[in-house]
Amino acid sequence: MLAPYGLKTDTASSGGEAIKRIEQGNAYDIIFMDHMMPVMDGVETTRRLREMGYKGKIIALTANVLAGQDEVFMRNGFDGFISKPIDSRELDGVLVGFIPAAPPVTPRLTPRAGTAAPDELKRCFVIDARRAIDTLEGFRAQGRPANDADFEGYTTVVHGMKSALANIGEADLSAAALRLENAGRARDAAFVTYKTPPFITALRKLSEELSAPDDSENVEMGDADRRLLREGLDALATACAAFDKPAAKAALDGLRQKKWPREVGGVLDEIAAHLLHSAFGKAAATAKSI
């Protein structure tokens, strides 16, 4: 979503990592801080950054927009917040308002209920959904979340699925994820235990429906194909090292012009999911894994 602005982006996978980036002297025009993160949430991370003397702009990303929520964020050191799923018009207003050099762009609207999500977004959703299913199956296998750490992990997973489902227009299933998220926050073990299995079933069914038909079983690779793949992946990894998302996306799109064996296609899908979340380190590591 930030690509049209020509901005270089960086990503941190946790609150602790975000703090470390600032301690290392990295400078940012703006920080988008997820409200819900495991171990240290966005509010606590921002509070610690402000205590360190950090003066830069910090914008909260939250799926929990309640009356008075803006005041809560402001009291805890944020400069503003954007609700999730993110509306690109709202993002545009924040960027242009806080970064004068950022040119306004024609917003690309986030898919809502009843609209078709782009194929790339669907592919990335399938990967995220499968990971979420694996995690939720782990909670189901142990019967129910056993302690606060389990509940926090569970809540983080369904929170992520809530936003991902909304982004592809699955409003009903997103609402189901919201109910599970609220139950996780309330430590309602009975509700979580009773409602998680049907949610997993519905999520798995949707994932299967969105998965593209696999006709790559008999695709073979020659030496020229292997060189092309390696060159493309190396270019992608180089772009990721420079946090250059447009260049990384261009390299990935170039590779997608060709049909590859199933295992290569799976790696490209995984890289696409990492790029969608601006997880440049993970995208580069995946590119180097084959």
UniProtKB/TrEMBL annotation:
Its main location: membrane. It is found in: Cell membrane. Residues 1-99 form the Response regulatory domain. Keywords: ATP-binding, Cell membrane, Kinase, Membrane, Nucleotide-binding, Phosphoprotein, Transferase, Transmembrane, Transmembrane helix, Two-component regulatory system. Its EC number is 2.7.3.-. GO terms for biological process: phosphorelay signal transduction system. It is a multi-pass membrane protein. SUPFAM superfamilies: CheY-like, Histidine-containing phosphotransfer domain, HPT domain. Gene3D superfamilies: 3.40.50.2300, HPT domain (1.20.120.160). It comes from the Bacteria. CDD domains: REC_hyHK_CKI1_RcsC-like. It is an enzyme of class 2 (transferase). The keyword Lyase does not apply. SMART domains: REC. GO terms for molecular function: ATP binding; kinase activity. One of its GO terms (cellular component) is plasma membrane. InterPro entries: CheY-like_superfamily, HPT_dom_sf, Sig_transdc_resp-reg_receiver. The modification 4-aspartylphosphate is found at residue 34. This is Sensory box histidine kinase/response regulator. It comes from uncultured bacterium contig00034.
